[in-house]
Amino acid sequence: MTQATTHSTQLPYSVDELTPEWFSHALTTNDAAVSVLGVDISRIIWGSATKVFATLEFSINERAIPSHVCVKGGFDERSRAYGLGPAYELEGHFYRDLAPDFAAEVPASFYSATEHDQGVIIMEDLTARGAEFGQATDLWPIDDIATTLEVQAKWHAALWGSTKGERAWLPVGAKAARDAFDVMLSPEVFHPLIERPEVPDLSAGLRDDARVRRGFARLWELDDAAVHTINHGDAHFAQLYRVPNSAPAFLDWQTACLAPWAHDVSYFMGSALSIDDRRTRERELLRHYIDALAGHGGPRLDDESAWYDYRLHTLHGFAWMCVPTVMQPSEVVEAMAHRYGAALEDHDPIGMLLA
């Protein structure tokens, strides 16, 4: 994996600032010069963070940087207005401090830097490696889901017992999600969101905004006091990619956090399996994760305790009842909300938490 570089220069805040001069400065290290003559931007994906796909023309390239790269950062003021600056900063820290030695594949990065409310990463263009990306409306076979759980188990085991003292930039819990829920679970926002046609017909207990807020408050309280590993924090199926002859891997580390293992595992399985497959295979797949975690040097979780924790953490899937269609396409929200909604009804995590 390629080590990212960092500089103290002011970071770009718009696509127009991704100039040959900026790339040259960003990619040059103390040991190797890089001079970029031209930048051809071929595609921009606007989202919570912006991904800019560019072809670079070099006059000097002592680092052998590929000509096709992806630059990710907070380049859209409309998204920044939602308070997403800390998420950009967090992902920059992840690629700077954790990605180089991470116990799972992440996209190779050649530069990563942060400043207050901004983080910018120059990474490989995964399409150049023939990557296939997870699509919420087109799930992969169960064997691939089992393999992805092995990937999660490997990095969970390697980072088991992580603390904030080791990496002060890592939040306890997925801070961006918690901050968003402060808005989404408010009565004036909650009810219009869950009454959309994309959202399944929820039971009365899941339509009670005060009860849902109490459930999340209790879950976060328990999570904050638990043994932590490093979680992706938003590990749903559409965050996956895979390249030929390689295990699946996760994109978008803007919500990396310290949390219990079940945060990632429950949230992932709720998104990655059809409702019927989850109901018939989730315990089997959970045991597969437990075996993989122990096999990679992590603890041997007790089956029944792990099942209890898994069920509690299905509550994270409630986020998709509240995802606005300006952030995700309608068909994606519908697919995810129905899968997660069924898991919430089946496992009743709020009932467990408030008992």
Give an overview of the whole structure.
This protein has 355 residues and is of the alpha+beta class. The chain has twelve helices and ten strands. The protein has helices spanning 20-27, 77-80, 85-98, 142-158, 175-184, 187-194, 209-225, 261-272, 275-295, 303-312, 330-347, 349-354, and strands spanning 34-45, 50-61, 68-73, 109-115, 118-124, 132-133, 229-231, 240-242, 249-250, 257-259. Strands 1-2-3-5-4 form a five-stranded antiparallel sheet. The chain has a three-stranded antiparallel sheet with strand order 6-8-9, with no helix packed on it. β8 (240-242) and β9 (249-250) form a beta hairpin. α8 (261-272) crosses α10 (303-312) and α9 packs across α10. The longest helix is centred in the C-terminal third of the chain and has 21 residues, at 275-295. It is globular, with a radius of gyration of 20 Å. 42% of the residues are buried. The mean pLDDT is 94.
Labels describing this entry:
single chain, about 350 residues, alpha+beta, 5-stranded antiparallel β-sheet, 3-stranded antiparallel β-sheet, 12 helices, 10 strands, about 40% helix, globular
What is this structure, in a nutshell?
With 355 residues, the chain is α+β, with helices and mostly antiparallel strands.
